[in-house]
């Protein structure tokens, strides 16, 4: 099973297939892999020692950043993620990025944002849309209508502990007017807004 995979000049870490959302646009709806990554559907969740050992197959000096993102929401295994991230950061001196839906506080029922401090360098949060109702329609979050505000609160809080917080929408999926609304949301939160391509 694929635990680590190189993509876009970075090394990606795939530790879980669990996710509280069932997004209508999710890449995993389209197949088992991304650009030759190998099958990202895990037979089981690898333990921390397996993930650490997998780095021997992909010397990180070849890659720009180490990114926690696979066919699942990486914060579903938050403590394990942070243990692996701390290991990789110390051993390889690489930037650590987490791509997330921003619903970790709902997953754990508490504010987990302080846990990222000193370990994660960049958090990229899927904003998707400026509209709470459309957000729920697109993400089909199991947490329901409170998901949008919880995601914004996560972004607001995690920037206290992580140097660079980014919120993203996907190019061509919303109007230019909606993109400007998203830009304003990000400005108000004090985070970076990025319009990304579908696969990044």
Explained architecture:
The protein has 200 residues and is of the alpha/beta class. Helix content is 30%, strand content 18%. The protein has six helices and seven strands, in the order ββαβαβαβααβαβ. It has a seven-stranded mixed β-sheet with strand order 1-2-3-4-5-6-7. The mean pLDDT is 93.
Strand content of the residues, in percent?
A: 15-25%
Order of neighbouring strands in the sheet with most strands:
1-2-3-4-5-6-7
Total beta strands: 7
Average pLDDT over all residues: 93
Overall, the morphology is: globular
* Tally of alpha and pi helices: 6
Q: What about the largest sheet?
A: 7 strands, mixed
Q: Return residue spans where pLDDT drops below 50 for at least 5 consecutive residues.
A: none
Write the layout of secondary structure elements.
Layout lengths: L3 E4 L2 E4 L34 H7 L10 E4 L9 H15 L2 E6 L3 H5 L13 E5 L5 H8 L7 H12 L5 E7 L5 H14 L2 E5 L4
Parallel strand pairs: 2-3, 3-4, 4-5, 5-6, 6-7
Antiparallel strand pairs: 1-2
Top keywords for this entry?
200 residues, alpha/beta, 6 helices, 18% strand, globular
Provide a brief overview of the structure.
The chain has 200 residues and is an alpha/beta fold. The protein has helices at residues 48-54, 78-92, 104-108, 132-139, 147-158, 176-189, and strands at residues 4-7, 10-13, 65-68, 95-100, 122-126, 164-170, 192-196.
């Amino acid at each position: 099973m694929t635990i680590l995979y190189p993509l876009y000049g970075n090394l990606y870490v795939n530790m879980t297939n669990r996710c509280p959302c069932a997004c209508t646009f999710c890449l995993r709806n389209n197949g088992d892999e991304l650009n030759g990554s190998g099958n990202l559907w895990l037979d089981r969740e690898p333990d921390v020692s397996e993930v650490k050992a997998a780095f021997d197959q992909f010397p990180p000096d070849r890659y720009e950043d180490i990114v926690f993102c696979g066919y699942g929401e990486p914060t579903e295994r938050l403590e394990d993620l942070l243990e692996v991230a701390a290991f990789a950061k110390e051993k390889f001196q690489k930037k650590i990025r987490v791509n997330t839906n921003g619903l970790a506080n709902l997953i754990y029922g508490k504010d987990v944002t302080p846990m990222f401090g000193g370990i994660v360098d960049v958090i990229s949060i899927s904003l998707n849309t400026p509209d709470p109702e459309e957000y729920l329609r697109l993400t089909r979050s199991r947490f329901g209508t409170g998901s949008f505000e919880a995601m914004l609160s996560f972004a607001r809080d995690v920037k206290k502990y992580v140097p660079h917080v980014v919120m993203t929408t996907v190019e061509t999926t919303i109007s230019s007017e909606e993109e400007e609304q998203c830009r304003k949301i990000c400005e108000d939160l004090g985070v970076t807004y990025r319009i990304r391509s579908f696969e990044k």
